[in-house]
Amino acid sequence: MTSPSAPVDLPAAWPQGVPRDIEIPDEPLTATLDRVMRDHPDRVAVDFLGQATTYRQLGAQVDRGTRVLHDLGVRAGDRVALVMPNCTSHIVAFWSVLRLGAVVVEHNPTYTSDELAHQLADSGATVAIVWEQAVPRVLEAQDRTELRHVVAVDLSADLPRTARWALKLPVAKARTTRAAMRGPVPAGVPHWHRLVAAAEPLRPSEAPVASDTALLQYTGGTTGTPKAAVLSHRNLVANALQGQTWTQHEPGTEVVYGVLPFFHAFGLTLCLTYAVRIAATLVVLPSFDPARVLAAQRRRPGTFIPAVPPMLDRLAAAAEETGADLTSFRYSISGAMALPRATAERWERVTGGIVSEGYGMTETSPVALGNPLSRDRRPGSLGLPFPSTRIRVVDQEDPTRDVPPGEQGELLISGPQVFQGYWQRPDETAHQLLEGGWLRTGDVVRVDDDGMVVLVDRMKEMIVTGGFKVYPSQVEDHLRGMPGVLDVAVVGEPAGDMGEHVVAAVVLHEDGSGAGIDLAAVREWCETRLARYALPRRLVVLKDLPRSQVGKVLRRVVREQVTDKSSREG
After folding, report:
1. For the AMP-binding enzyme C-terminal domain, which residue ranges apply (predicted)?
2. Mean pLDDT confidence for 92-110
3. Could you report the per-residue pLDDT of 193-228, keeping only the tens digit for each?
4. For the chain, which domains are there?
5. Phi then psi dihedrals of residue 531, to 5 deg
């Protein structure tokens, strides 16, 4: 066992019944699944669009998935890429990789071939389990990677039998649904479901240990350079246990809604590890759609939903419009972006439950702070450090110097959920992880008298839109190659519950080559290299870009110009 640190005085706002420190078991993450399979074998583990899978059945599928990966040559320490939306197969593959002591590498299945090629090559993944629609993009990238095997996942194969049969009907609705779930797969690419169905179960004789790497999760960190955060089994075990301690949920009693993408750190921990730790039934949806969530709610009412604010707002609005009953949801945790007070009030009015804001980073597995899951929560506050988590507020220029109480400074975090470093990037790791294991967050905060942490500003330039991080330099680098564009600066502008919208401020060539450039053309150019959420939502043409004396673009001034131009045009 990892011993907790010495006891300290509890902050005034500390939730009743939650210990300040906890012991983290010295065990791999797979031990969590083993316990739940033993103690709750007949409880429904996963409900994917009506197809129920018990923990006993899930364990059997994981054992067969483990055999499939072993037969493909996967061994301890090897990286296995998962490129698919939320589905039962995603969950099975995740646990099967960990059973072998191998390393899960999560990827956004909507990424372009170039984006996937970069991440796959960087991780050195040798096997990729891929949604059919993403298979062509992964195969296009394969010669730039170390991939030896690509295995296709048919999303519709996880559906109930009647739903699979309905997809074959010669009607428009069936064709539309089938097209959204499936995709063309070249001959010779094996299918995950067929391999698993034919495999003999395998339970490796040697389990991974707590210090082994479990997950590579790609993030821009605080610099905008895509890199993989290395998370150990201990990191993931700790954060799931911290979450259970904070929520005080009893095992075998909760129905968690998996509307967050599993390839995102927030969704992975809350839906794949925390949900299993509390033996919850996880209602899985391949993508967020309010109508589909309400349909699932009628079938299997939820009790707990982790989400980003726009999801909560859209779901509450849909319930108000249709008269749907969301009162079974007692709790919600909101993260990835600031929770607007109006959204919190609307959600609590519709559900009668509590929504609490949390804070974290991929580098903290990801949750580090949270509001109490009670009426004591404070909308607009990041909350309190999780159990066994310590924070410091330091001078922004000198992270070795703590600022006086109540003053603002950069937030540092220490705890068992703090990552091991960046994959094959020792210099960036050394910059981010200070002596004593303190993680620099790049966020400026203050701590109020009751211990609540409040976000003041962001040191980083990233844009948060709909819960996703967009790094301006990546968008700018691509737009600079567009014919007719002389220079560009990308900034975020307030967008209500979406957080921010991406705005491209461009300077056009004086030779007139950029005369035909408009927002549609910019978005079309960007679609070849960037994720959809990173595409500019507005285009502003400037005569030049404001720069510092050393030539650095002053994004703060650009943002002011963009805002001013918008107000005048509006």
Report:
1. 475-552
2. 97
3. 999 999 999 999 899 999 999 999 998 644 556 799
4. 30-434 (3.40.50.12780), 463-569 (3.30.300.30)
5. -65, 155
